[in-house]
Amino acid sequence: METYYVNGFYETRNNAKISVEDRGFNFSDGVYELISYLDENLIFFEKHYSRLIKSLLSLKISSPLSNKKILKLIIKRLIKLNKIKSGYIYIQITRGTAKRNHVYSKETPPNLVIFCLPLRKIEEFRRGVKVRTSEDLRWGRCDIKSISLLPNILDKQIAFNQGYYETWQIKDNYITEGTTSNAFIVDKNGSIRTYPKSKHILGGVTRDVIIQIAKKQNIKIIEKAFTLNDIKWCKEAFLTSTTVKILPVIKVNDIKINMMKIGEITEILTYNINKKING
Ligand code: PDD
């Protein structure tokens, strides 16, 4: 039986409940974090925790977790209760339960739900995925991991319906990121390029780790935005996220990348991130 952590209690799926007056339900007023784990070991936990605190502070939502040790204890217990050895942890926090009113009170305690899901089967994507592009219609604070994901889910669904893995968002001619992942190319000079950390993208944990690995491997990485025209001339492309770590991108719209084969730099990064995770 699946177990959910809800505001201090471990509840079975049918008993896990949140009020109809939850501000997350009424206003998308909340944040979340997604952490992957392998053999019960949390991957890049510190980075995810820091980002969660940053998201909460940005929205002035008080933290229901007094420290990271407590969060870790809850997660470990949840993993045991769910008997899922490897998977993903979702931490959902909203501004709490209150009579519907745009104006909120600082006194309302936040709602906290934590649950885990088993690893997704993504082997078919390892050989490379196709990406489409569309206009970035999201708000001006994409750096906050907000539960308000409407433009993301709509564009991800279009991608899915049309046989693509992801939709890369275009703002002022530049690719910002995907709906669930960060976007990269290896440009014609052999440098990795990705949109700079800013309010226009989520600062991905995997993105940070990939940048670290590239630097260590002496691969030049420039946090500088790229356009569709840069994609036409690029040597490789890839995307990163907690759920997939890194995936080669072999086609963007109708542009074939590296003759639809996995590139050398993508392979080096994949090898090294797997090494880092698996020890
Ligand atoms: N999404 N950009 C967006 C818009 C994302 O939603 C995500 C993660 C990323 C990558 O961030 P990270 O490497 O920290 O996972 C970038 C996850 C997978 C999700 O919400 O399902």
The largest sheet, given as strand count, sense and whether it forms a barrel, is: 10 strands, mixed
How many strand elements? 16
Distance between the termini: 31 Å
Structural class, judged by helices and strands? alpha+beta
Assess the beta-strand content as a share of residues.
25-35%
CATH class term of the largest domain: Alpha Beta
H/E element string? EEHEEHHEEEHEEEEHEEHEEEH
Fourth-tier CATH superfamily name of the largest domain = D-amino Acid Aminotransferase, subunit A, domain 2
Uncertain parts: none
Q: What count of helical segments does DSSP give? A: 7
**Hetero groups bound?**
N-(5'-phosphopyridoxyl)-D-alanine
Descriptive notes:
It is a single chain. This protein is of the alpha+beta class and 279 residues long. The chain has two domains: 3-118, 2-Layer Sandwich (D-amino Acid Aminotransferase, Chain A, domain 1), CATH 3.30.470.10; 123-278, D-amino Acid Aminotransferase, Chain A, domain 2 (Alpha-Beta Barrel). Helix content is 28%, strand content 29%. It has helices at 23-27, 45-58, 68-82, 150-161, 205-216, 228-233, 264-278, and strands at 3-6, 9-12, 30-38, 41-42, 87-94, 111-118, 129-135, 166-171, 174-178, 182-186, 192-194, 221-222, 226-227, 236-241, 245-252, 255-256. The strands form two sheets. Strands 7, 8, 9, 10, 11, 12, 13, 14, 15 and 16 form a ten-stranded mixed beta sheet that branches. The chain has a six-stranded antiparallel beta sheet with strand order 2-1-6-5-3-4. The longest helix is centred in the N-terminal third of the chain and has 15 residues, at 68-82. The protein is globular, with a radius of gyration of 19 Å. The structure holds N-(5'-phosphopyridoxyl)-D-alanine. N-(5'-phosphopyridoxyl)-D-alanine is lined by residues 34, 152, 177, 179-182, 202, 204-207, 240-243.
